[in-house]
Write a structure and sequence with these properties.
It contains five helices and 18 strands. The protein is α+β, with helices and mostly antiparallel strands and 227 residues long. The strands form five sheets. A six-stranded mixed sheet has the order 4-3-15-8-9-12. Strand 1 and strand 2 form a beta hairpin.
């Protein structure tokens, strides 16, 4: 008999291509990991220590729909590669980091840019702009055994058929092994953790009725309707 005083929350999951589901423990998001995006956001593109923020595990959503959130009139798309870990630990070496990766998926870091901007000006956390309901549309997770490790290849997003973001994974300032190693110095990583690996330039607003198409070489396309 359980000692829980309320029913246990459902464990958030990402569907796996070919069947099954990946349980999500934590969501780490790296900021300004493409030089061109750092420039468009008004920052120096030089390589500086990485910084991370978090979304909530249940912000990830594989429904193919993104409900336009309340209290914002400026919601932006940010196309990203999601990295899913099958194991973790602390003090992980860069040379060993990829051994902890289960697979990869296309995803979006949807952002209430106006609310994030207000938070930045007042020196407050970003969660109100980043970690809202269904703010992480995600496609099927594909195991490394099918894709190999994702260190290069086109990453692009189009809105209603017009390309707005178009980059290459090899343009990431901090590569996947480096992100894993860095995070493991500050957190104890574990199976079920995911990392959203940053976005190329071209972020911009969406409106209700828009259709977003995410394309990352080697992964299944992700189509998301703004509702």
């Amino acid at each position: 008999m359980s000692d829980l005083v309320i029913p246990a929350p459902t464990v958030p999951t990402i569907p796996v291509a070919g069947g099954g589901a990946f349980p999500v423990r934590r969501v780490y998001c790296i900021g300004r990991n493409f030089a061109a995006h750092a420039i468009e956001m008004g920052h120096d593109p030089d390589r500086e220590p990485p910084f991370f923020f978090q979304k909530n595990p249940n912000n990830l959503d594989a429904s193919g729909e993104f409900p336009y959130p309340p209290h914002s009139n400026d919601v932006h798309h940010e196309v990203e590669l999601l990295v899913a870990l099958k194991s973790g630990g602390t003090g992980i070496k860069v040379a060993d980091a990829l051994d902890h990766v289960y697979g990869y998926a296309p995803c979006l870091d949807m952002t209430r840019r106006d609310l994030q901007g207000q938070a930045k000006k007042t020196g407050r956390p970003w969660e109100i702009g980043k970690a809202f309901e269904r703010s992480g549309p995600v496609g099927p997770l594909q195991p490394v055994s099918e894709t190999g490790h994702m260190d290069a290849g086109r990453i692009a997003l189009s809105v209603n058929g017009t390309i707005t973001q178009d980059g290459n994974l090899n343009q990431m300032i901090w590569k996947v092994p480096e992100m894993i190693a860095y995070l493991s110095e500050y957190f104890e990583l574990a199976a079920g953790d995911v990392i959203m690996a940053g976005t190329p330039s071209g972020v911009g607003p969406v409106e209700r009725g828009d259709t977003m198409l995410v394309q990352i070489d080697g992964l299944t396309d992700l189509t998301v309707k703004v509702t």
